[in-house]
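Give me structure tokens for this 196-residue protein.
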Amino acid sequence: MKKQVMAVAALCALMSGAAFAQQTEGPWMVRARAVNLQSANGDTTGLGLSTNNKWLPEVDFTYFFNKNIAAELILTVPQSQTLYAKGTAIGSFKHLPPTLTLQYHFDAPGFKPYVGAGINYTRLSSIKLPAGVSADSSSFGPALQVGVDIPVGKNMYVNFDVKKVYIRTDVSAAGSKLGTFKVDPLLVGVGLGWRF
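Here you go.
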């Protein structure tokens, strides 16, 4: 009987310790990721437009309203892209695509998967195109997200994240709309997260 009481006491101590560790994790998480941008290159202009794939840095700030629901703001620095027409470089542009998602984090032992959906705003700048050709300088579109945080230490996580972001711009020549160029990238990222 004494051994059983001691075993129950030890189990209660372990459970209360785990609960305390969960309570000490604050509502904020910051992640830093390396992200591979893969452009969908959809084009209705007839020019055969496309842009390059590339690696880029990304940082996000997540706030947990409770253990399952969180909001994430995803940021990077302005990214330079080359614009091609049927494989020939014809210009370039920079884009800054902040994205805000609402996430659901699942309860799972050993890892923390999540899904998210939200909105992206992309600002295009330093647009360099052939004379007489222009493109819209901003884009709003939906964003979808799936990922997982894997604990590797106290309040530290390895993160794997995949996002589909809808970015597009209307292209005009001599004042007439030619069509729409859809970048619509798939963003595959890996990084580290800190919960506090």
